[in-house]
């Protein structure tokens, strides 16, 4: 009777779940350790790895340096680390809010999103980059004072040069037209690109018109795109 009662008490405290856990623990202890494999996270040779590490070190040493952030994000993108490029550039743009070159960090974030075909946040950061560029041009910086201004009073160099602003506007217009088209670049990248290109007006400078078979203007050739 005593043995039967002891067995019933044991069943009360030890169930099937407990036995299962005990079996798993025993297997984990008795089996030999699994073989582990490791591979390099960043593609490329040793100089490429060093270049990425150096670019990252520069962003840590100078978190407000938009040029350093842009270089780091670009190298990460080239190495296939697209998620890391997005995270690094977005974080740097928040850390360098007072930096006159913040627009570069914001633009780097936009480009990093484009590399992942995430065009909606890419357009958002392109808009932010343009706003930061305009703000930097209005405030001016030490570079502006050192290099002077044009006769019209606008700064030709400094925090956000005018040619960089033009380049960003073309990029932003291309993205904006693509997003407004509603085309998903993951499914139809060519269609999205064509929709973006539709925002740029084609200007024919002259030259031989192959369709009509005649010259459209003397002393000119080729074509170009303009906003």
Brief overview, please?
This protein is mostly helical and 227 residues long.
Task: Supply the key terms.
single chain, 227 residues, mainly alpha, two-stranded antiparallel sheet, two-stranded antiparallel ribbon, elongated
> What is the count of helical runs?
10
Question: SS-based structural class?
Answer: mainly alpha
The best one-word shape is elongated
Determine Rg (CA atoms, Å): 30 Å
Order of helices and strands: HHHHHHHHHHEEEE
- Overall pLDDT metric: 77
Q: Cα distance, first to last residue?
A: 97 Å
Strand order of the largest sheet: 1-4
Tally the beta strands: 4
Helix content: 55-70%
Give a short account of the largest sheet: 2 strands, antiparallel
Uncertain spans, ≥5 residues at pLDDT below 50?
Answer: 141-157, 207-227
β-sheet strand percentage: 5-15%
Describe the protein's architecture and organization.
It is a single chain. 62% of the residues lie in helices and 5% in strands. By secondary structure, the protein is mainly alpha-helical. The chain has a domain at 63-215. A hairpin with a 4-residue loop joins strand 2 and strand 3 (214-215). Helix 4 (66-78) runs antiparallel to helix 5, helix 4 (66-78) runs parallel beside helix 6 (102-115) and helix 9 (162-181) packs across helix 10 (189-197). The protein is elongated and about 70 Å long. The N and C termini lie far apart (97 Å). Mean pLDDT is 77; it is low at 141-157 and 207-227.
